[in-house]
Amino acid sequence: MRKALSVKQFNEYFKSNIKHDPIFQNLYINGQLSNVRINNSHLYFSLKEDRDIIDCVIYYYEDKDIDFSVEIGKDVLVKGTVLFNNFSSRIVISVNEIKEKGLSQKYLEFLQMKEEFRKKGYFDLENKKEIPKLPQKIGLITSEEGAAIVDFLSVINQKPNDIHIFVSPVKVQGESSPPMVKRAIEILDKKDLDLIVITRGGGSSEDLSSFNDSLVIDAAFLAKTPIISAIGHKIDQTLLDLVADLSLQTPTEAGSYVIKNYSDISKEMKNIVTKMGEITLSRIRDYEYRLRETERILDRKSPIREIDKRINSLTYLKKDLNLRLRSNLSYNEQKLRLVSSELKRFKDIIEIGKKNIHIKDDMGNTIFSKHSLKESDIAFIEFSDGKVKVEVVD
Predict the structure, then answer these.
(1) pLDDT class for 157, splitting at 50, 70, 90?
(2) CB of 46 within 8 A of CB of 56?
(3) Sheet with 358-361, side-by-side order of all strands
(4) What mean pLDDT do residues 132-142 have?
């Protein structure tokens, strides 16, 4: 039994054979441009023939002498070297030269079909149906195995809503895809839905060819239900994008558009609740102010307040009367003490006067006995404050 190779050994062997094969090092290939994109100064594109595709890259393409516009559908001749990427196991042609040969027959057929649909009015704005702002019943046409259905539904479920999804699984590429998509459109169009979304998770222009098929374009135009196309492309535009009532790029963008107005409702409800709270708080504050004013009015007119006022007045009068009585009493007591003091002084003077009374005859001799006087004698009584002349009558 032959010894098995490891993955790394196989890749290195394959890469080495390509590198040393002279055909792969100086290769000319003719094909139709597809999947043209620019990234970090490098031009990436594919060459295709029918359903066969090979990837190419022109590194730093602006430095190359390219004298024509690199556009999808053109037939070109490239010269380059075959490269093998170990990590992705992909063959890529590093292009050194590229020349224009004109538009490919396949692309000319696409342009012819596009013009025929344009003349029929398939792309006219007046034939576009209005997308409901709040769709509740949505038909979804996509692959049940791809990421598109997950991306779309995950965005829808981010906001509260009453949306019901009717999924119609189809193949989104290959020969069986166009009739399946056509049939799905026709079935969902009979269900009285608000909206149909046709979506997939992106791919090359060849992968998106089902959405250029006349079966799909006719069904989309004839449908009475509004249709959104979101088939995951960023560069190529399909005929479905032109005939659809609204064209978006990705399933996520389609989900965001559908749920957009539900998000606005959520914001509006929050704003309404906030405003209601502010109005309620304002009214409460107004009622509180009115209540305080009423309390002040009642307080001013309350008999209790008047009674308290009278009580306070009487209390003040009582205090004033007591103060006056005490003051008057103190004054009278002081006056009485002064009078008593005067009386005592007069009494003392009288007592002293009593002790200093002297009786003398007209000769000035002191008389100590009544026997010293006889009738008609003149005598002098000397007091402390003066003397009195008297005549003895008995």
Answers:
(1) confident
(2) yes
(3) 358-361, 378-383, 386-391
(4) 89
Specify the CATH class of 7-103 in words: mainly beta
The alpha helices in the chain, defined as continuous H runs, are 7-20, 22-25, 105-119, 148-156, 177-189, 214-222, 239-243, 251-301, 303-355
Which residue type sits at 316? Answer: Y
Residue 66: pLDDT band (50, 70, 90) is confident
Q: What is the mean pLDDT of residues 233-239?
A: 67
**CA dist., res. 194 & res. 142, Å (int):** 17
The dihedrals phi and psi of 83, each to the nearest 5 degrees, come to: -115, 150
Report which of residues 190 and 15 the model is more confident about: 190
- Token output for 329: 């009493």
CATH of domain 110-124+131-262: 3.40.50.261
Tell me which residue of 163, 237, 160, 235 sits closest to 197, measured CA to CA.
163
DSSP for residue 157: T
Considering the chain, tell me which residue range(s) the CATH 2.40.50.140 domain(s) occupy.
Answer: 7-103
Q: Can you name the residues that pair with 380 across neighbouring β-strands?
A: 360, 389
Q: In the structure, what pLDDT confidence band is assigned to residue 129 with cuts at 50, 70 and 90?
A: very high
The burial class, CB within 10 Å (0-12 / 13-18 / 19+), for 361 is middle
CA angle 59, 62, 67 (to 5 degrees): 115
pLDDT at 149: 85
Please report which confidence band the pLDDT of residue 329 belongs to, taking 50, 70 and 90 as the band edges: confident
For the chain, percent helix, then strand, then coil, each to nearest 5?
Answer: 50, 25, 30
